[in-house]
Amino acid sequence: SCCVDEVAAEHVGAEAVLHYGPACLSPCRKLPVLHIFGQQPLDVGRCAEAFRELYPDRQSRVVVLSDVVYAHAMGELEQRLCPEYPNIVFSRVVCGDPPGPAPPREVWRFGRQFPVEAPGGLQDCAMFYVGAEGLALTSFMLTWNCCPFSSFDPATGCGRRETLNVNRALMRRLYLVERARDARVVGILVGTLGVVGYLAVLQHLRELLQQAGKRSYTLAVGKPNPAKLANFLEVDIFVLVACAQNSLLDSSDFYRPIVTPYELELACNPAREWTGNYLTDFRDLLPGACAHIELPPAVPAAEAVPDISLITGEMRAAHLCDPLAPQLPPSTTLACRDQTRALAEISPAASFLESRSWRGLEQQLGQTPVSKAVQGRRGIAIAYEDEGRKQP
């Protein structure tokens, strides 16, 4: 895993953690962490040659990023390219958050720190990534989608301009935002227990969904896969709370879409509008962060502006619910109500369960005749022992 397993370390009473291998460099909550990335081989001469081919203009403003396993060779690469390219900037791998507010001309994100000296900021810079194609590069490209990207793969020794159409990837993510607006039941997947702020963002998402009039269920299922999430068919969409690299999960193989906390904010917070900047770190959404936006006050249903789904074409609720309002209608009449139907009125999950013809193992006390235990079938499903085998 790219995240530090702080929970397992606490189980054994550890006072510090040594994390070996690839890392997303997300800050931990309690324990100090020392990262040992390893040192994968890098042909610095071939990498510098590929950089010159991609950027023939010696005045190009380029920020050099790298995978953590190649960070050991960035110093030698810097010595070769800096005399030729005066406007080149090399990022530095850092662990944890900055000690204080970052200077206005400095970027501190994804465990990388680098100054921005271009007059127009990052929009006037290009990005050169040293490493293989993967989640880290995808996260960089979506976050800094205003910058053209190039990469050098040390395994193949080839440099290229990244042809991944970021706009198409963003269109896919914005389609998922529209799916989140249509959803009535949202499952919050806990994908990390070690990144600082995950408890705060869980509470933030619950409050956001409550004010948006949606039901939410918090699920801790470990690493998500289609088989696990298929058990919750009553859930319309899932939101994954994980580190910045693992948040962008491809949900094409899942029965229900999986969105990021930022995409859920776009769907449920009317005050947040799409500006072209994509956020993969959920900590940017918390109060006190640079990208935090407060929810507007609740609007009565009679004064809400009608909203039409772009997917189904149906009208949907577009007003925010008052979080202090009672969730159940008050009743002063005593009446005997069916428990399942009573739950179905307040819970979409119970309503979905009621519509099923088979609801699991039921006791049916007094309805099943008493009988002695008998031996069942033995063998495997394709060839039980009591079944005759077909002759070839």
UniProtKB/TrEMBL annotation:
Transmembrane segments: 183-201
The protein's annotated pathway: Protein modification; peptidyl-diphthamide biosynthesis
Keyword Metal-binding annotated: yes
Example GO molecular function: iron-sulfur cluster binding
Cofactor(s) needed by this chain: [4Fe-4S] cluster
Domain of life: Eukaryota
Pfam families: Diphthamide_syn (PF01866)
Biological process terms in GO annotation: protein histidyl modification to diphthamide
Coiled-coil boundaries: none
Keywords assigned by UniProt, alphabetized: Iron, Iron-sulfur, Membrane, Metal-binding, Transmembrane, Transmembrane helix
Stored Gene3D superfamilies: Diphthamide synthesis DPH1/DPH2 domain 1 (3.40.50.11840), Diphthamide synthesis DPH1/DPH2 domain 3 (3.40.50.11860)
Function: Required for the first step of diphthamide biosynthesis, a post-translational modification of histidine which occurs in elongation factor 2. DPH1 and DPH2 transfer a 3-amino-3-carboxypropyl (ACP) group from S-adenosyl-L-methionine (SAM) to a histidine residue, the reaction is assisted by a reduction system comprising DPH3 and a NADH-dependent reductase. Facilitates the reduction of the catalytic iron-sulfur cluster found in the DPH1 subunit.
UniProt family annotation: Belongs to the DPH1/DPH2 family. DPH2 subfamily.
Protein name from the UniProt record: 2-(3-amino-3-carboxypropyl)histidine synthase subunit 2
